[in-house]
Structure formats: C-alpha cells, structure tokens
Design brief:
This protein has helices spanning about 30-40, 165-195; strands at about 5-10, 20-30, 50-70, 80-95, 95-105, 110-115, 125-135, 155-165. By secondary structure, it is an alpha+beta fold. An eight-stranded antiparallel beta sheet has the order 1-2-8-7-6-5-4-3, covered by helices on one side. The longest helix is centred in the last third of the chain and has 30 residues, at about 165-195. The chain is globular and about 50 Å long. Residues about 5-10 have low confidence and may be disordered.
Length: about 200
C-alpha cells in the first residue's frame, strides 16, 4: 500500500493568501468500481472524511451528459455518461466551522472532480481531483497466469488545490487543511475496509 505524496505552496499576490497544492497516490486492494463508489458517496462524507461535519447532496441538481472522455493509458477517447451534482459540505475546525458549496463531476469509472462554487465561501479557489486506474501485475514478477484470478488492485491518485478568501481564514485554517489533506487517503482506505472487508492476500 505504499504511496507518494507532496505538498506545494504557490505564491500569492500582494495581500492575497497563497495557493496550496497537495498530491498523493496509493494502491488500494479493491476494484476500481468499489473505490469509485466510496469517493462518489458524498452524502456520507460526514461519516468518515476527516473534519467533515456535514455533507448534503442536492439530488434535484443531478444532471447527466453524454461526453467524450480521454482516460490516461487508453489509445482513444470514449463516450461516457458524465454525471454532475451540487453538494454542500461543512468543515469543522475549532474554533471555526465553515460551509461551502461544491460542484461534483463524476466520470465513471476513472475520475471524480469537485470544485468549490465561487463567491461567499471561505475559498477563492478549491478543486479536488480523484483518479482511479486498474493495476494489473503479477505478485511473482512473472507474466500473469490467465487461469489464476489475480487480486484486484486500484491506483488511487488524489490532488487538491485551494486558496482562502482572506488572510484571516488562511491563518486560522491552513494547518487544519494541511492535516485534512494528509489524512484523506487513509480515511477512504479505511472506508473501503469497512464496506468491503479486508482483502485476502494472494
């Protein structure tokens, strides 16, 4: 389950909070469909996402579009049913509690993007991207035996960019959001284990 992670700080303009960027990737011992469904279950984020105190999906805002999507690693674009919805998330970090609206776009089975709605929130910019790629590998280092079922594995890549609307928010919340970003992947893996059980090693 080894992964990669990194945090970058992009300089801001005069008097403006700087942009924070965090990236991490890790292999999950679950199918791509299973991991995708956990990340897509925004309604239940408050049950397992660090410091998320409330999560509400406005189901009347669901929209489906037929779009062309280019998944990395595939030779040609494919046509998919792209779904989108608005959600409100509440983030709690003593002594503050903030809410913001987010546009969530699901490109099943390989990407989920959530972007904060500008205006009136704590962010001038906030975008999270999840990408899911099937891992096909042999545990012996030899070519995979087509007659032996291989354990499912998915490479999960997570990135977040955000900048706060005011220096006050930046000062109060930057350390908390750093902690949230760093603990995010572990929370989703734990959710997979809770829903699907601990995989048997093969």
């Amino acid at each position: 389950l080894a992964g990669r992670r990194g945090f970058l700080a992009m300089p801001g303009g005069m008097g403006r909070p700087r942009m924070q960027t965090f990236r991490e990737s890790q292999e999950f011992p679950y199918t791509r469909k299973e991991v995708f469904e956990v990340v897509a279950d925004v309604d239940r984020y408050s049950e397992f996402v660090p410091m998320c105190t409330n999560s509400t999906v406005f189901h009347s805002s669901w929209r489906t579009e037929n779009v062309v999507s280019r998944e990395p690693g595939l030779p040609h674009p494919t046509t998919i049913d792209q779904r989108s919805v608005q959600a409100e998330l509440a983030v709690g970090y003593p002594p503050f509690r903030e809410r913001y609206m987010s546009n969530v776009v699901l490109e099943q089975p390989w990407r989920i993007t959530a972007t904060a709605v500008p205006g009136g929130g704590i962010f001038t910019h906030m975008c999270t991207i999840w990408e899911f790629a099937e891992v096909v590998a042999s545990t012996t280092g030899l070519p995979a035996n087509p007659f032996v079922q291989q354990a499912a594995r998915t490479k999960v890549s997570f990135s977040i960019e955000y900048a706060f609307a005011s220096p006050l928010h930046a000062q109060a919340a930057s350390l908390v959001f750093d902690k949230m970003a760093r603990s995010n992947m572990a929370a989703y893996l734990a959710r997979c284990q809770q829903l699907y059980g601990t995989p048997v090693r093969q």
